[in-house]
Design goal:
Elements (H helix, E strand, L loop, with lengths): L8 H29 L5 H20 L5 H22 L5 H24 L4 H14 L2 H7 L6 H21 L1 H12 L2
């Protein structure tokens, strides 16, 4: 069987830097074209937000020993900020906080539940990320109490799913959590 040759680190760095510089040049070109053609529509800002999101994903993915749960958390937060930015640039119709963020929270929690079921022995590695996602999912509840969110049902469902997911995860992994606590604290 023939395996592909592994790129040397110099070639890999060169390719990485080339793509990064190309992205910056592309972003600047998009801004120039936007200002020359349709300055009243901020489509270049939306495109550049997408480019920045892609680079956040690339930087986090390249990092060694990336925890899958951490990746889910970073993606959920980054996509949420991206949707709020896009909504803001398009006149802030609040679709990002009414629909988008609750759906992102539900998907992140479903992903975390699947990760827990598939690899329950690694739950301890996922626990802190799961807690951060639960805290992040409480933002819609705060926005509801401030009367900023109009679609309260989807936000309440997303926050409830997050809390239930955390409880279910602790229930599924109770034996592993107890063993880890005993091992860590020498109880």
């Amino acid at each position: 069987m023939i395996y592909p040759k592994k790129l040397s680190s110099k070639k890999g760095d060169l390719i990485f830097k080339t793509f990064l510089i190309s992205s910056v040049i592309l972003g600047l070109l998009l801004v120039i074209i936007n200002k020359l053609t349709m300055p009243e529509v901020p489509w270049a800002a939306l495109s550049n937000a997408g480019i920045i999101y892609i680079w956040i994903t690339v930087f986090y993915s390249i990092k060694k020993n990336t925890n899958i749960a951490g990746h889910v958390m970073i993606q959920a937060i980054a996509i949420s900020f991206l949707t709020v930015f896009i909504d803001y640039k398009l006149g802030f119709q609040k679709w990002s906080i009414n629909i988008s963020i609750p759906i992102i929270i539900i998907i992140a929690n479903a992903t975390m539940l699947i990760l827990t079921i598939v690899s329950h022995k690694k739950f301890i590695k996922y626990a802190i990320y799961q807690l951060i996602i639960v805290l992040f999912s409480m933002i819609p509840v705060i926005l509801i109490s401030e009367n900023i969110i109009e679609n309260k049902v989807l936000s309440i469902v997303a926050s409830s799913i997050s809390i239930l997911n955390l409880i279910l995860t602790f229930f599924l992994c109770a034996k592993d959590v107890k063993a880890a606590i005993i091992r860590k604290f020498h109880i």
